[in-house]
Amino acid sequence: LKRKKMRLVMWLMVATAEAWLAPTAASPSWALEARRRSRLVGKKRSSSKGPKKPSLTAVPGITPPASGKLKAWALGTADRGVRLAAARVGDDLYAFDSSCPRCSFDLDTGELRGTTIVCGLCGQSYAVATGRPGAVVEREGLTKWLGDLARRAPTTKTATPLRTVSAALDGETVLLDVAGSFLADELGGA
């Protein structure tokens, strides 16, 4: 029984590593458009003192998830890339870092419960709109054992907020705030 559990844990680790090393196929033209828009936004003077609106850029080559579902996206240029997870709740689209801040497992393999996503490994929940961590969802059986193991692992961190990206839909076209989010740093100043 211990060997089977260890094989399962090793398989999960290898599957996660393979997913991260997969090549990206997104066109770099969206990155150039985001850079152009960010330069224009920086020159405009705003008289309102409220939060600034995100500059959304159409990203070709990715499709939105079905309503109530999760989906993974790999975005990148020739030399850099990033994985995002997306959730669609009704007509609203939410995009966030694909990696769980607590255990580094892919969140697109987790569960979407209303406007909350639950990590498939450690059970940590996050609000998809804000990224704020919530309670740990307890499970039973093998998934409970794996979740307990993941939470006790020396590489597991405390729950920190999930990095989110402003997202919207224009028909079936996905719009992301590339310039005003963590994606600008990850993709090299896009």
**Shape type:** globular
Which segments are poorly predicted (pLDDT under 50) over 5 or more consecutive residues? 17-28, 38-47
Structural class: alpha+beta
Largest sheet, described in full?
4 strands, antiparallel
Structure description:
The protein contains 4 helices and 11 strands, in the order ααββββββββαβββα. 34% of the residues are buried. The longest helix is centred in the first third of the chain and has 20 residues. The protein is an alpha+beta fold. Strands 2-3-4-9 form a 4-stranded antiparallel beta sheet.
Layout of helices and strands, plus pairs?
Layout: H1 2-21, H2 29-43, E1 57-58, E2 70-76, E3 81-89, E4 92-97, E5 111-113, E6 116-118, E7 124-127, E8 133-136, H3 142-152, E9 164-165, E10 167-170, E11 173-176, H4 182-186
Antiparallel strand pairs: 1-11, 2-3, 3-4, 4-9, 5-6, 6-7, 7-8, 10-11
Question: What labels would you give this structure?
Answer:
4 helices, alpha+beta, four-stranded antiparallel sheet, 190 residues
Quick structural overview:
The chain is an alpha+beta fold. The chain has four helices and eleven strands; from the N terminus they run ααββββββββαβββα. It has helices at 2-21, 29-43, 142-152, 182-186; strands at 57-58, 70-76, 81-89, 92-97, 111-113, 116-118, 124-127, 133-136, 164-165, 167-170, 173-176.
